[in-house]
Amino acid sequence: MYSEFMDKVVLVTGGNSGIGKAVAFGFAKNGAKVIITGRDQKRGETVVVKAKELGWSLEFIKSDVSNAGEVKNLLSYIMGKYAKLDIAFNNAGTSGETGKLTTCSLENWHYVIQTNLNGVFYCMKYQIGEMLKTGGGAIINNISVSGHRGYANGPAYVSSKHGLVGLTKSAAMGYADQGIRINGISPGLIDTPMTDKDRQKKPGYDEWVKKVEPIGRMGEPEEVAQTVLWLASAQASFITGHILAVDGGILAC
Ligand SMILES: NC(=O)c1ccc[n+]([C@@H]2O[C@H](COP(=O)([O-])OP(=O)(O)OC[C@H]3O[C@@H](n4cnc5c(N)ncnc54)[C@H](OP(=O)(O)O)[C@@H]3O)[C@@H](O)[C@H]2O)c1
Question: Which of 187, 190, 140, 189 minimizes the C-alpha distance to 167?
């Protein structure tokens, strides 16, 4: 448990599902005031109901990270209501279509880059702007092992995640001496609705996972959440510009 998160204001984009939901619950359980976002209002409301049952402070705001205006409005809302933003987990993302480069449609390319890369740029632009006014904060971007190595069937996804490595490091360098720590995490295969889509499409998926993941299984969203909470905490006070793998060993191969 982290008593330091009590009454901290925490934003989790894409907090209505998978890794984002686990991270949002992790902070909320520790007494933070959590704002989650996503485009699917119904899924957002379901998460809010669950949090309320447990007595946690958590609200859902419908907001699309690929729309800079919506992200700006989101930050205005947070500042208006809470007067600060202490921690942001920029997690919203999409895997897009599967296929090699020549089969990647222009629409898919732009959609994935707009969501995964431009979306985090918009988020950090407005988050950092507000954090600078209120004495700093911590930002963690959700990248992927695909930010460090290629695979043939996801050119847009791999490019967006490689871009996030550079964006995270560049932002970290820009504000390291102004009280804002900016880090990334790179999950391996985590059991969420995103990977469940692949499981439905790919026969023998679970056997394939055992071969790909040195640890022999998928990770749980809660295992990623533990890492995010630690990076956001004072225990990681000298860490910025770092991308931490939470990947069962994939990047060690
Ligand atoms: N699962 C894995 O194995 C794995 C591995 C490495 C990295 N990741 C990364 O982890 C992040 C979360 O993925 P997940 O596995 O937890 O999948 P997920 O359960 O499908 O969650 C994706 C989340 O992103 C939100 N989202 C997507 N596009 C959005 C947009 N334009 N604006 C706002 N929210 C948007 C979704 O909400 P709405 O649909 O309501 O908008 C949802 O909350 C992604 O960035 C993904 O690349 C996942």
Answer: 140
